[in-house]
Amino acid sequence: MTVKFNQTRLFGGAITVDLPEGYEDVSKIRQVPDNQEVYLSSTGLSSILFDVTERVCKPSDEAALKFHLDDIIEESDIATTWAFEREVVIGLPPSISAYTLFATTTRSTPDNKLSLSELPNSASYQFSGNDSNFTALLLLVIRLPQHFTDIVITINIPHIVASHASIDQDEGNTYRPGTIDLAGGTNGKLVDEGLEIRKRILKTFEILDWGLFGEGGL
Which end of the chain is less crowded, N or C, counting CB atoms within 10 A of the terminal residue's CB? Predict the structure, then answer.
């Protein structure tokens, strides 16, 4: 799977990063807060949000990251965290801490057949065409304590069952939905693309104007 990227200037050029082709700046069609940049895929499904926000003070960086996750999800959502890792942003000083989190959310509604939080970690689940979809949230949080700032980058990917389904022509055009095993790394096409995008952000994210976070910044 290959995603093509272009270097993109954020916050008036204070930050640069590679973003995938086919993602458009949402500020061209609606108002976006000054401390955010939002890019939406041409399909209108996946999005990438850059949020420059006040640093969250928690006992640990993991707790701070989960605080940011709770701030993103809806109260009615059921969230499951699948991975939490410390990362290195190549274009930033090595003293800067960065973390990634992979979570999924499902709506807590009576017609949900199964919540991902109810799945054992080793489970494989066969989705059918009528099953509720879920949303994958790929977070990257860059912590700037000297600037009292957290940069929260969220790749939001609604999971579409049909995106990794296939039609078996040898079996009379039988619909085969495929298997999702998040614990085992079988994520589906859209989530895999999102992981590739986050990996590219880690490699290419650069802060060119640190004044963005100080006096006269956001």
Answer: N
Residue numbers of the chain with a pLDDT score lower than 50: 110-132, 164-168, 173-175, 216-218
Cβ burial, residue 17 (10 Å; 0-12/13-18/19+): buried
Chain Cα centroid distance, residue 49: 8
Place of tokens 């009615």: 76
- What radius of gyration do the chain's Cα atoms show? 19
User: Which helix (H) or strand (E) segment is 152 a member of?
Assistant: strand 149-158
Report yes or no: 18 and 7 within 8 Å, Cβ to Cβ.
Answer: yes
Q: Count other C-beta atoms under 10 Å from residue 63's C-beta.
A: 11
d(CA 145, CA 165): 45
Count of C-beta atoms within a 10 Å radius of residue 131: 15
Kind and range of the H or E run holding 150:
strand 149-158
What is the dihedral angle through the alpha carbons of 12, 17, 23, 25, rounded to the nearest 10 degrees? Answer: -10
Looking at residue 26, the DSSP 8-state letter turns out to be G
pLDDT digits 0-9 by tens, 22-79: 999 999 999 999 999 999 998 878 999 999 999 999 999 999 998 999 999 877 778 8
Main-chain phi, psi angles of 60, to 5 degrees: -145, 160
The candidate with the shortest Cα–Cα distance to 32, out of 11, 5, 63, is: 11
CB atoms < 10 A from the CB of 91, how many? 15
How far is the C-alpha of 78 from the C-alpha of 208, rounded, in Å?
A: 38
